[in-house]
Amino acid sequence: MSRTDHLNDPNAPKATSIRVAVSAVVRDQAGRILMIRRTDNDKYAIPGGGQEPGETVAEAVVREVEEETGIHVEVTTLVGIYSNPAHVIAYDDGEVRQEFSLCFRARPLSGEPRTSDESKEVLWAEPTDLDDLDIHPSIRLRIVHGLTDDRDPYFT
């Protein structure tokens, strides 16, 4: 299913739903960031996805990161809560979601990078190389916040 992100777009469709999503800024010992290239919009992003019934948000982070990247992680701290009503995501099935994502920092424990149905590329990116990647502004904000270790969690 494809998606189109609308941010601060006065012509964006109105949101019809909100779903709890999680994401993670995962850094290896060298300081590189785990990134995926999404199959649904061809943009680079940090791994993440929807929370499923019966799991905690931390369990959702671990599951989503491993599903999309092959990397098993441990959640360490909260980066922030992103719920901007000016950011909606339109799916080709007609659903339009308001952004609602809990973003965490996590550290890799094991695994080797591999792609999935949701990620056509998985890479460890140097923070200095992020400007060369096509990253949606809402994801870039989470990365910036995730790289700043001495700040309180962000929220909208």
What keywords describe this structure?
156 residues; alpha/beta; Nucleoside Triphosphate Pyrophosphohydrolase; five-stranded mixed β-sheet; 2 helices; globular
Described by the principal axes of the CA atoms, the overall outline is globular
Q: What radius of gyration results from the CA coordinates?
A: 15 Å
Distance between the termini: 28 Å
CATH topology: Nucleoside Triphosphate Pyrophosphohydrolase
Portion of residues in beta strands equals 35-45%
Number of domains: 1
Major sheet: 5 strands, mixed
State the name of the first-level CATH class.
Alpha Beta
Outline the low-pLDDT stretches.
none
Share in helix? 10-25%
CATH architecture: Alpha-Beta Complex
Q: What does the average pLDDT come to?
A: 96
Instruction: State the total count of DSSP E strands.
Output: 12
Please write out the topology.
Elements (H helix, E strand, L loop, with lengths): L2 E5 L9 E2 L2 E6 L6 E6 L5 E2 L2 E3 L6 H13 L1 E12 L4 E5 L4 E3 L2 E11 L7 E7 L11 H11 L6 E2 L1
Parallel strand pairs: 2-9, 3-10, 7-12
Antiparallel strand pairs: 1-8, 3-6, 4-5, 4-11, 7-10, 8-9
What does it look like?
The chain is an alpha/beta fold. The chain has one domain: Nucleoside Triphosphate Pyrophosphohydrolase. 15% of the residues lie in helices and 41% in strands. The protein has helices at residues 57-69, 137-147, and strands at 3-7, 17-18, 21-26, 33-38, 44-45, 48-50, 71-82, 87-91, 96-98, 101-111, 119-125, 154-155. It has a five-stranded mixed beta sheet with strand order 6-3-10-7-12, with helices on both faces. The protein has a four-stranded mixed beta sheet with strand order 1-8-9-2, with no helix packed on it. It is globular and about 45 Å long.
